[in-house]
Amino acid sequence: MSVTAAAGFRAAGIAAGIKKSGNADLALVVNEGPRNEAAGVFTRNKVKAAPVLWSRQVLTTGALRVVVLNSGGANACTGPEGFQTAHATAEKAAEVLGCGAVEVAVCSTGLIGEQLPRPALLAGVEKAAGALAGTPEAGDAVAGAIMTTDTVPKQAAVTDPAGWTVGGTTKGAGMIAPSMATMLSVLTTDAVVSRPVLDAALREAVKYSFDRLDVDGSMSTNDTVLVLSSGASGVEADPAVFTAALTRVCRDLAEQMQADAEGVSKRITVRVTGAASEDDAVTVARTIARDALVKTAMFGSDPNWGRVAAAAGYADAELDPERLDVTINGVLLCKGAVVAGDRADCDLSGRDVLIEVELGLSGGAEGHVAEIRTTDLSHAYVEENSAYSS
Amino acid sequence: MSVTAAAGFRAAGIAAGIKKSGNADLALVVNEGPRNEAAGVFTRNKVKAAPVLWSRQVLTTGALRVVVLNSGGANACTGPEGFQTAHATAEKAAEVLGCGAVEVAVCSTGLIGEQLPRPALLAGVEKAAGALAGTPEAGDAVAGAIMTTDTVPKQAAVTDPAGWTVGGTTKGAGMIAPSMATMLSVLTTDAVVSRPVLDAALREAVKYSFDRLDVDGSMSTNDTVLVLSSGASGVEADPAVFTAALTRVCRDLAEQMQADAEGVSKRITVRVTGAASEDDAVTVARTIARDALVKTAMFGSDPNWGRVAAAAGYADAELDPERLDVTINGVLLCKGAVVAGDRADCDLSGRDVLIEVELGLSGGAEGHVAEIRTTDLSHAYVEENSAYSS
Question: Is residue B4 assigned to a domain?
């Protein structure tokens, strides 16, 4: 069900003593080949964590043998010392696993602005290398070791009838994680795929999964999604079929992140239809998904559609109020930006909320549509995020 | 201290029965002349309330005699019926005060998506017309009648040694007001100022006051700021001096809005210096001020500067991490995007927080600087905004 679902991968997750709690905090994912194609997508934040700077650099080769992941510290805003820690981590993994440091990516998650304990980290890499296995349990251990405020591990896999598999794990809930402690995800496949196909497939998959999850609009210093291909199935995957499978795994993981987001009491999907362009559809959906007044109303199970209409109205997208309809959980509440149905008919007592916004500017086969998943703004969110670093 | 501080104005605030609570909910501000220049700034939301559509239209003449304001309902998303209500309100005021409806602006605030009770509103206009006075108490009554979740009335005035006065009142806390119930502000002056000067002065004043207050990033359907000039002092104001006085009054009112924002436990000023442009300075300051993780950290009195650095890093502005410094309440915590001071030295126990971000891209007399005022994200904010319309 995870990074070991595809053939050709071994993994381990152990407690290296980085987290004060003593919980698992270090993981290794190793591609045993025969192939070693890899692709990655990183945060667009201009303040990038040391492991992001390192991993982006090594990935320019389009190949990876190893990923080292740690929780318990983001290694962000840590300067040259932090970069040296990321570098030393890759060197240690290369040494114990018999490859080059340039074939090792590093991912970190946790509080920004503190140095990682380098000796513990390096000893942890050695310990994890001794525990490597290709079993489902080893995949579970990776999923467990990268958790921060996650309450459950997150894994997914898809097997294609042609004989290859895509699997993966993730942590965090988009940018909601405390201190931007971020999302990390490692995906593995045994399909035979060329580097350009792997790269294009990852970008497409991320665009329609992790990029469509927006919990609080904050962009992390550490976000990293990596995909590694071993080619161990010996089966060359059709690019379109592979992209669809990778997207399915990423969407599954993104939904698990939404369901486990900090302080979540409602899982909200904002669906915008009839936009002038796909970009506009995304912009309007994202603006509504980020609006604090919409999110607090949902927390209160209050079908306050006026806040949805107002958020759509200030989104940076084409909009004609006379064509703006708002439907919440199936009840049309606002037609042409005018009150329509009765709020009392709209039941928000459940855990899932669907906010549908029709912009009326495109339709049918040419209609531009987008969905953004988000969560409500609850007391638990405020509580978890108001006391993290201290 | 308010809309009646300048000569040539009479005002009234009464209970018209729009609010179920029976509290004051309707106000009139009447310019007795001899002059009647006016200017206005309205929400840029594409979904505009009926009174905004009406007032924007009548203000194209650059003249106003009367402003009618009501709380208890925003008259937004109310369609043709709502527009007819705004129109009928202006007609009624024109009739009882002996002017044209085209000289009457209308402002509304409250829940989006419900029709105002038109008979109560029109009877209220008549009742308020009978209560008009040029006294400070009449100004107080206006400030009281436009309050929604405000806990205190908000008024300010400045008198110039040359012999003229600018006064005003406001309600709301930027866009934080529930259901985008918005900010409304009426400013009055007895200075002699031409229409172009009045218009330019208002835009400048709003830019450096209300536009620099950002509580939750939401833009209302009803935001309106109006300035009326009676010229009753007979003194022609120097444009620059007048602009400075108007800006002072608006900044004073904006600070009162910040201090009374919903759920506020911290008054936060984000000051960005050394930006590549003034627009960049505003963008970075606003991005930090809107970041939910920064705002929850401040609520928890947690000097989590990593969240500030991360928010600066995802702002759509020029930024070089190696020059990024973050100082909170006077303690330099981050230099060149690297941990510097000790969090423990940073005392956030008080009500005021100053977050200083130096971008290092400009300096001295050519330095680009901006300040945005905001508040923390507290349990009280979630509480007040999770149960409003129902």
Answer: no
